[in-house]
Amino acid sequence: MKLFFNLPIASTIASLLSFASFVTSTQAAVLYQASPSYPQLGTRLYASGSDVAVSILPSEAAFDSYLWLTSPHRIPVASNRETGRLVNLGAVSPGAELLFGLQVSSGYWYYTGDASRNPDGLPHSKVTYLSPGVARVGFEDLLGGGDWDFDDHTFIFSGINLAPKLTEVQSKVVVKSGEVFDFSASAFDFENPNDLLFSWDFNGDGEIDYEGSEGKGAWSYGGQGIYTSSLTVTDPSGAKAQYSFQTEVVPEPTSVISFAFLGTLGLGAIARRKH
Ligand SMILES: [Ca+2]
Ligand SMILES: [Ca+2]
Ligand SMILES: [Ca+2]
Prior knowledge:
275 residues, alpha+beta, Immunoglobulin-like, Jelly Rolls, five-stranded antiparallel sheet, 2 helices, elongated, binds calcium ion
């Protein structure tokens, strides 16, 4: 009878103690990890602040096409048959995404960046970074992706910037109210690998709570509850990478620990009674 009575208490104490040790852990969890390189498909291009120029490389595509800058300004650039031509689009505000569109004689439009922008939901442009500010951008011009070699219409873009890419984010998922905890993140950027700004909003109110160039620091929560925290990394041209995560802030665990102590004393009393 005592055995049945003791076991649930022991397991309750064990779970309380493990909960307490998890909460008081000083280890930060790895929340996000990615390779320190950019994918070539779906890469967005941003303005660096200097003049944006496009040179047209040879094309062997069956289709004629015309390249446009469609945002933040709508500017016609050149046909894919104007090999060797260099078009200067002038300066675009730094940080703005340069959204290029290829108007193909088949009637379809294909865009730089996310696959969801294209009529078939597939990526149609491949960005190969050549040097800071300069990339070769090749398009596929067939609905469905064709042969996926991304060289039907090829251009050299200069005056561009790639957004930084987060490679690791560490923080605590469960934090005690009032506890100072460590957090850290690392990011990768072609143009400015050592000149990035890390901005943390821990309580999700839109106000930056901690900012610095080192990618690490310490902070504490005042209240309790579940918060959507975010980290934004910005390069000197204003291009950004963002990551969001949830943090649970629990009360100071004095009640948990005293409950666990009570449980331990209770078990001792039960053990003594057995003798
Ligand atoms: Ca092709
Ligand atoms: Ca950059
Ligand atoms: Ca905040």
